[in-house]
Specification:
Blueprint lengths: L7 H12 L1 H11 L18 E2 L2 E2 H19 L5 H26 L6 H26 L3 H24 L7
Antiparallel strand pairs: 1-2
Helix pairs in contact: 3-4, 4-5, 5-6
Keywords: Membrane, Transmembrane, Transmembrane helix
InterPro entries: DUF6490
Pfam families: DUF6490
Amino acid sequence: MPLYNDNPESRTNLNVLMSSKLVASPLKSMEQGQLRQPLRDQPQHPEEEHWMGCSLLTLIGFGFLTFNSGMAVYRSDRDLAAISFVVFSYVDLVSLFYCLRLFEKTPPESPRRHHIKTAVWLLTTMLTAVFSYKVAAIMPFPVQILVWAMAAATVLGGFYAFFLHSEEQKP
């Protein structure tokens, strides 16, 4: 059964309608008898490639992080402290991104969500402490105090935001 009647005026209207980019593809596929997937099943950003649940941009970011970490270890001249810092930071960041992904996928009512939130806070706290230590080591004493005060404020602010402040208190 055709989508239009044999009236020449309705064919013209249909041709005008089909020339529109928004309507052309579904109408052509309907005329050809092809079924299209509902729009809600299609990805929000079709240009974003996915591989094993990760977007192309995520994979590029991890490749960049891995390359830079490898170069930092290579250029460390076998300094064990520098290698330890780079390896710890790399493992901490990868673990943090993994836990954040788990946190996003976990249903809000799940008790596992609180454990993941605790792991995220601990990982960010360790990363803050390690970077603060490295920055404070090259600063004069008054700036060291400022660096550690900012690190403490960040850690305590994160603790408040993650564990003490609840969504139910919002007006």
